[in-house]
Amino acid sequence: MNKYIAIEGIDGCGKTTILKELKSIYHSDQTVEFIKSPLEPFRGLVEDVWNFPLFDRFIFFTAANSYFANAIDSGKVYVFDRFIYSTFVTHLPLQKQREHEELLLQIIAKLNLTPAATFLLRVSKDKIKQRLSERNNTIDNALDIDRLYDLYYDSPTTDLGEIIELRNETPSDLRTNIHIIQDKINDLKNI
User: Fold this and answer.
1) Full-model pTM
2) Cα 28 to the chain's mean position, in Å?
3) What is the per-residue burial (b if ≥16 Cβ within 10 Å, else e) of 101-115?
4) Distance separating alpha carbons of residues 10 and 15, to the nearest angstrom
5) What pLDDT digit, counting tens, does each position of 13-32 carry?
6) Which of 6, 24, 124, 167 is a plausible cystine mate for 83, CB 3.0–4.6 Å?
7) Are 11 and 127 contacting, i.e. CB atoms less than 8 angstroms apart?
8) Domain count, the chain
9) Which of 160, 182, 185 is closest to 4 using CA atoms?
10) CATH code of the domain in which 123 resides
11) Close Cβ partners of 176 (under 8 Å, ≥ 6 residues apart)
12) What is the DSSP letter of 45?
């Protein structure tokens, strides 16, 4: 079993907030590492490839994820801000997903990219739009929220490992979700 988990969801769903809280809990624990995907040297190229065709972006992000999988320290638990779920959902046209789904899933399995768990944070579309308008930055303002929302939440039909949906609307949800994810991290630490 891979000792990494992914925190996934559309922009504005609360990934950064949850990761910030988890980092503070594990700040002195050398066996838990938090990573924003993709890693360097790929991170520096994201802006260059962003306007590539979707399938080409899928290949780029899959290669970045594979780079990580080949460079891990097996003694650590890794917690990702996005990983293979986002790669599959947002960088692959829906038509390509359907046409080549079996082959793409075989590639993901062969590259050992299936996390022990993917926590998919779900927030209502209205709440997402509100959160993003409050952030008011160029990238968020350019997002097609309706399209992305449907991709993240209406089509998780692929086998990308254990996908656990967590409602993340309220402060109470946030506290509960941190404990759920913390339990998974601790379970993986004990393997």
Assistant:
1) 0.87
2) 24
3) eeebbeebeebebbb
4) 9
5) 999 999 999 999 999 999 99
6) 6
7) no
8) 1
9) 185
10) 3.40.50.300
11) 166
12) G
